[in-house]
Automatic annotation (TrEMBL), chain A:
<comment type="similarity">
    <text>In the N-terminal section; belongs to the TRAFAC class translation factor GTPase superfamily. Classic translation factor GTPase family. CysN/NodQ subfamily.</text>
</comment>
<dbReference type="InterPro" id="IPR031157">
    <property type="entry name" value="G_TR_CS"/>
</dbReference>
<comment type="function">
    <text>Catalyzes the synthesis of activated sulfate.</text>
</comment>
<dbReference type="InterPro" id="IPR041757">
    <property type="entry name" value="CysN_GTP-bd"/>
</dbReference>
<dbReference type="InterPro" id="IPR005225">
    <property type="entry name" value="Small_GTP-bd"/>
</dbReference>
<feature type="binding site">
    <location>
        <begin position="109"/>
        <end position="113"/>
    </location>
    <ligand>
        <name>GTP</name>
    </ligand>
</feature>
<dbReference type="InterPro" id="IPR027417">
    <property type="entry name" value="P-loop_NTPase"/>
</dbReference>
<dbReference type="GO" id="GO:0004781">
    <property type="term" value="F:sulfate adenylyltransferase (ATP) activity"/>
</dbReference>
<comment type="pathway">
    <text>Sulfur metabolism; hydrogen sulfide biosynthesis; sulfite from sulfate: step 2/3.</text>
</comment>
<feature type="domain" description="Tr-type G">
    <location>
        <begin position="21"/>
        <end position="235"/>
    </location>
</feature>
<dbReference type="InterPro" id="IPR011779">
    <property type="entry name" value="SO4_adenylTrfase_lsu"/>
</dbReference>
<dbReference type="GO" id="GO:0003924">
    <property type="term" value="F:GTPase activity"/>
</dbReference>
<dbReference type="InterPro" id="IPR050100">
    <property type="entry name" value="TRAFAC_GTPase_members"/>
</dbReference>
<keyword id="KW-0536">Nodulation</keyword>
<dbReference type="Pfam" id="PF01583">
    <property type="entry name" value="APS_kinase"/>
</dbReference>
<keyword id="KW-0548">Nucleotidyltransferase</keyword>
<comment type="similarity">
    <text>Belongs to the APS kinase family.</text>
</comment>
Amino acid sequence: MHQSDLISSDIDAYLKAHENKSLLRFITCGSVDDGKSTLIGRLLYESKMIFEDQLTALEQDSKKVGTQGENIDFALLVDGLAAEREQGITIDVAYRFFATEHRKFIVADTPGHEQYTRNMATGASTADLAVLLIDARQGVLTQTKRHAFIASQLGVRHIVLAVNKMDLVDYSEKVFNEIVDDFKTFADQLDIPNLHAIPVSALAGDNVVDGSRYMPWYEGPSLLGYLEGVDVEAEETSLPFRMPVQWVNRPDLDFRGYAGRVAGGIVRPGDDVRVLPSGKQSKIARIVTMDSDLDEGVSGQSVTLTLTDEIDISRGDVIATSETPPEISDQFDTTIIWLSEEPMLPGRSYRMKTSSRLVSATVNAPKHKTDVNTLQKLPAKTLQLNEIGNCTLAVDRPIAFDSYNENRQTGSFILIDRMTNNTVGMGMINFPLRRAANIHWQNLDINKAANAEQKGQSPAVLWFTGLSGSGKSTIANEVQRRLFASGRHSFILDGDNVRHGLNRDLGFTDADRVENIRRVAEVSKLMVDAGLITLVSFISPFRAERDLARNLMEEGEFIEIFVNTPLSVAESRDPKGLYKKARAGNLRNFTGIDSPYEAPENPEIEINTDDMSLEDAAERVINGLIERGIIEA
Amino acid sequence: MHHANLPSSNERFIMSATAQIHLTHLQRLEAEAIHIMREVVSEAQNPVMLYSVGKDSAVMLHLAMKAFYPSKPPFPLLHVDTGWKFKEMISFRDDLVAKLGLELLTHTNPEGLADGVGPFTHGSAVHTDIMKTQGLKQALDKYQFDAAFGGARRDEEKSRAKERIFSFRSAQHQWDPKNQRPELWSIYNVQKHEGESIRVFPLSNWTELDIWQYIHLEQIPIVPLYFAAERPVVERDGTLIMVDDDRMPLKDDEQPILKNVRFRTLGCYPLTGAVESTADTLQAIIQEMLLTRTSERQGRVIDHDQSASMEKKKQEGYF
Ligand SMILES: Nc1nc2c(ncn2[C@@H]2O[C@H](COP(=O)(O)OP(=O)(O)OP(=O)(O)O)[C@@H](O)[C@H]2O)c(=O)[nH]1
Ligand SMILES: [Mg+2]
C-alpha cells in the first residue's frame, strides 16, 4: 500500500513503518551557482515537504527576489537568510528534512562560494554521502575539485556526481560523458569508494525524483531513487568498543556512572575494559538508562556505564575494550583544514577539543599543503583560510585516539583560538608520532626519580644548537669535563657521532633532518630517564624540532643553549672544510648556505663565541645549571 | 489516550540483512540530544533549560531526565511567563515540575507588567517584544545563565534551518547569522567570552513528526490543549482564538461559540490560532498532521509579518 494511503487507513501501521526507517545524512556541494539550493528546493517540493502557506510565501518571494522571473525560484526554500536572498547565493549551511517510504533524509545544503568553504566542511563532517553538482555548461571547476577533495578527506565514502542544468546543453549525452570522464580523471587520485554520476536539471526536475523524457540515453536511477537505495551503513558497530566519558554521574555515594555516547562497537555487561589514558582495567557492571538496564549498548547510543571496580575516571577519559584499546600519544601526524581568516601559527598554543577532551596543542609548520586543483603537495610555512595541509601536532598531555580512517569520532579534533575563542581549524589524526608512548607502557620500579637520586643529581638535557663550526662540540666537551671533575654523571650525544650509527640511514633533506632530531630527542629522553645530565650537540636548525624535543621532557629539564656565532665567523673557522664545499656547490642543503637556520627565540642560555673564551662559555653553562637547581654549586 | 505496547529497548534495534545492529532514526536523534546536553553541563558554568510548556519543551525535558538519570538534570528550568499563557499550560507546568521534583524559575517582565502590556492593548509585535524577548533577556541576565537550552527545531522555519546547534549570542544577546562558528562532527566548541552566552538547541534535527512520534513511543505527558475538545472560540481575521479568560475584549458582534478545536502549537492564548479538529488521541493528531497542508507555525500570529521576520527577531534576541 502506498504510504499516504496508509496514513488515512492505518496510522499505527504507518507509524510502525516510519519508526523503522533508516537515516541518510547527505550534503549538496559544488561550485557557486551550480544549482545546489535549487536541487534541494526541488526535492523538498516534489517529496511534498512544502506546506501550502510556505508555497504561497515562496511564490511571492520568487517574484520579489527570485532569479527566475515569474517562475518559482526553488533556491529560496533553502536560502533563508536575508543576505542570501538579497545576493542570490548561499552563505551558510541549511539543514532540511524529508522522508520517503524507505528512508529519512537529513540534507545539508552547503555554499559553493570559496569564501564559505568552512561552512561546506561543517556540513560534510557529519555526512554519509555528498551530492556534488556540476554546471553542465562549466564542467569541472576548481571549486568542484576542492569540495570533492574535502569530502574525501573527511571520509565521505559516497559521492553522487550530479551534472546539472542539462536543459541548457540540449540534454546532451556527449557533454555529460565528457564531464564525467574529466571528473573521474581527477577523482581517481582521491579515496572515493563509491562514485555515481547522474545527469539532472534541478530547475526542470529531470532525473531529480522521476526520470527524464529528454534523456532516454541515461538508464540509471533518478537522484532520489539512488539516494533511497544506496547502502551507506558504516559498520560502526563492528569497530572496537570505545566511549569517551562526557560526564561523571554521582547522584549519591552508592552510584558512580560514566555518561557518554558509544563511539564505536558494542558494549555488554561483563566486558573487560581499559580506561585511557591511565590504562587501568575493569569490567562493565551495568549499562544504565532511564528505561531499564540494557543488555548491550551500541555505537551511536548515549548510555551511562558503571564498572565493577572503583577507579578514578574523569571527563575526557575513554573507556574502551581491553582487547584492542585505542592508542595513546601526545604527538600526531594530522591533516588540518584551516577555517580562519587569521593564518595558522606554527608554534602557537591552541586549544584542541577531541570528542570530549579539551587540551593544549601546538601545531608545527606544515610538512606540505595540498593544491586542490592539481592535488600536488606544495611546501608551506603556514596554512591560510580554506587550505588543507599535513602537520604534526603536539598536545600537553597524552590522549587516547584512533586514526580518523578507523574511527571518525575518536580520530577528529577542532582547534580553538585562545584569544577569539573561535574554531579556527579542523583536523584528522593520521597516526601517532611516538609509538613508544602507547598504553602498553611498563611501569618500572626503578624509575627516573630513583635513578636520579642514586646519582645525587637532577637529570637534564643541555641542548646545544648553532651553525656548523659555531663551537657546540668544543663547549659541550669542556662542560662535560667540568661535570665529570665534580662527580656528575653525564653523556654527550654528538651530531657527527650519531650519524655514524643510529642515524646512518638519514641524509640532509628537511624530512631527514626532522627525523634525525626526533631520534636524538628520544634517545636523550631515555638518558634523562636514566638520571643522566645529557649534552646534545646538534645543529638542529628548525625551531619546530627543538620544540618537539623540549616537549618530550618535563618542565625545567630542557635547557636550550644557543651557540650564537655569526655565519661569517663560523665560515672563517670552517674546521671541517664544509663551508668551502658548500659554497662551491659540492654540498647541498648545508645549513646557513642553502638551508635555513632558525635561531632560538628564548634560549635558556645564549653564548656568543665571538667575544667569549671557551672557559667563560663553559663557566656560563655551569652557572646556568646551578641557577636552575640542576647541580649544586 | 491509547498507547501502542512498547517493546523493550533492546527489541527496538533494527536488524539489517547483514545481522548488524542499527539504531532507528529516533534512537539516533535521542542519543544526539542527550550527548549535546551532557556537553553543555560539562563545559558551561551556569546552564538553564528554557521550558515553554509546549510539546517540544516536553520532549526536551524528557530527554534531560534521561541524559542525567539516575541524577536529576543539574540545571533549573526557566519559564518566561508573558502573563498571557493558556491557564491550562500553567497548571500543567506546575503539576509536572512538582511530580518530577525539579527547580522551576519563572520570570515576567516587571516593567511590562506594571505598564499593563498585553496583546490586545499593545498589539502582537510590541507584546511579544516586551514580554517575551525582553523578558527572556532580563531573566538570563538576572541569573547570569551562560547557556540556555531551547526546544527550537530546524524544520520550523527558514532561518532556524540555518542555525547551529550551539548558537552564540553577544553580551547584548544578538545573533550574527553571517558569522556563525563552524560546527564540526559532534565536537562542540563551548568556549566563550565573559558576558557572551550560548543558546543550545538539542532538538535541531528533529521534525514535527519526530516529536509527535517520540511523544507517542515514550508516552510523554503533554498539555491537553493539543487534543481536540469543545472550547469557546471566536473567529478573528480567519483565525480561531480561544477565549481563555475575561481579559479578552469582545466586539459587539462577537459571541464565543463552542467548537471542537485543538492547538498545533502553544503560546500566548490571544496569539495562538486553534484548528477545528476531532483528533483526541496521539495517533489521530499525527494522522491529522500528516494529512494537513499547512505548517504548524501558521497558527502563530506573530510570524506572519514578513519573510525574514524570524531572522530579524532572533538578531534582536528572540529565542
Ligand atoms: N536552466 C537551469 N537553471 C538552473 C538549474 N539549476 C539551477 N539553476 C539556476 O542557477 C542559479 C543558481 O542556482 P542556486 O540553486 O542558487 O545555486 P547554488 O549552487 O545553490 O549556489 P550557491 O549556494 O550560492 O553556491 C539560479 O538562477 C537557478 O535558478 C537547472 O537545472 N537549469
Ligand atoms: Mg545555494
